[in-house]
Amino acid sequence: MADAAVLHAPITRKVPGRFWIVPPAALLALLFFYPLVLIVQQAFTDDSGMANVAEFVRVLHARFFLNALINTITISVAATAGCLIVGLVLGLILAFVPFPGSGVIARLIDTFIALPTFLVTLAFTFLYGSAGMLNAGLMEIFSLQAPPVNFLYSTWGVVLAEVTVYSPFVLRPLLAAFSLVDRGQIEAASVLGARPFRIVRQVILPAAVPALIAGGSLCLLLTVNEFGIVLFIGAKGVITLPLLIYSKAIQESAYQVACIIAVINIALSLGLFGLYRFAAGRLGA
Amino acid sequence: MLVWSRPGRILIWAVFALLFGVLFLAPLAVILLSSLADQWNGVLPSGLTTEHYSDVVQGAAWKAVKASLVTGFLASALALVSGTWAALALRIQDATLARVLGVLFFIPSAVPSVSVGLGLLVAFSHPPLLLNGTIAIVMVAHFVLISAFTFGNVSAGLARLSPDFEQVASSLGARPAYRLWHVTLPLLTPYLVAAFGLSFALSMGELGATVMVYPPGWVTLPVSIFSLTDRGDVFAGAALTMVLVAVTLILLLGLERVAGRQTRS
């Protein structure tokens, strides 16, 4: 590795160091790409070991699969929209209407990226669950018999949890983009009488579009793949593709069905990954 | 400053406080509160206790902390070596190949973690590569999932490195191995520490792949938090979550200080 790594030749030469890439590439091939190929192979092979698409087609038309696919896409799109709105509002305030301590708050929000996603779901059960603080309060005040707030165990509970977890992924590139906006331009516009809303629309937003696209496509990818939040909410009606893979493989030992769903989930994720790379490439990140 | 009038600014800050409070502050506060809650039937807990923490420390939870730390350390260390190796080796490939390989090294971060776990089960359940049922399969799953982040961090660091130092070193006659060890890697150290910290944090919170592959006897923190809350033992689950958060934050802050000292010296 040593020789290869530092031969930073400006002219591409045939150096033996080019083979230094082989060990890490081989490791990744064995531990990641080989299992990936086996998933695809298993998805299209029947019990006798022959290539067969019948099972694949059957799963594709099955009710449980279609429900999970629709749930996954609905949750992902709604949560991404939420992340964009929350990220934009928080970012605008942190960057352009700062308050004492706003830097600390921005860093605190940033650390959410490093925390496990299911933490938020667990917290939400204490806040909005059927025996949670909100319901207990409302039942006490209005002397109700049943908990009035039930959104947690629906699609919207998952969406709200994902907005909390993933809006920092929009906020981070957005704050970077905002830091490049010329403050003089904003002050000039406001001295000339432009109202804040107009400055946001005409000066700030155009500078933020690439960051919004990059952050938004990353959110789409991460929310499609999200597992912990959905598992912890554990609502019968909210099954997404990753959760379906888990329950088919681990709880029902139906490995071929799990592989078929995984193939579709991976294809969806790779498509979104392509979108993110394209967007981030245009951002220059 | 976008808004000049005082009432306007206060209104906007109120909106911020509401969003921040509901989305970020309330979840953290309520996890902390519930981990200390005695009984909780009303709006607030009826009393506070540290019982859940002492249960957690005495019980199987201590094993979970150990399993998570060992897994996180080994997987992050392997990811650091392989990610740094790959990023350095990619610099001497020609541009097209480097771009293609760069994308391939990133792809594990795009694939759902549950599928990574499923793939490992399918691939490594038969001899000669029998990993299923061993601790190694958990390490491998974590390594695969975090390798892309380490590779990305180190690549970003390399791209920002000024080539001058390396050129000066080689014009002074430094051999490639010497240059790597005494010039390039020391310059990269802050990025390596940051990459290690991020992958460690990701590994500590990993659930999707772990829940697919973990053998009995190697239950990581997230998996044991899930089985606690699934059984209805939510307070112990909250206490264990606080342990996870604390360990993660201490690790991140500690590594940040190490990285800060490295850049200053």
CATH superfamily of the largest domain in chain A: MetI-like
User: Pair with the most extensive interface?
Assistant: A-B, 98 and 95 residues
| CATH level 4 superfamily of the largest domain in chain B | MetI-like
- How can the largest sheet of chain B be summarized? none
CATH architecture of the largest domain in chain A: Orthogonal Bundle
Determine and state the CATH class of the largest domain in chain B: Mainly Alpha
Count of strand segments of chain A? 0
Give the oligomer, counting copies of the same chain as homo and different chains as hetero.
Answer: heterodimer
Order of helices and strands of chain A: HHHHHHHHHHHHH
- Overall pLDDT of chain A, averaged? 86
Rough outline of chain B: globular
In which range does the helix fraction of chain B lie? Answer: over 70%
Query: What is the CATH third-level topology name of the largest domain in chain B?
Result: MetI-like fold
In whole angstroms, how far apart are the ends of chain A? 27 Å
Percent strand of chain A equals under 5%
Q: What number of structural domains do the residues of chain B give? A: 2
Rg of chain B (CA only):
23 Å
Count helical runs of chain A.
13
Count, helices of chain B: 11
What are the main properties of this structure?
heterodimer; A: 285 residues; mainly alpha; MetI-like fold; 13 helices; globular; B: 265 residues; 11 helices; transmembrane (chain B); Putative 2-aminoethylphosphonate transport system permease protein PhnV (chain B); cell membrane (chain B); MetI-like_sf (chain B); transmembrane helix (chain B)
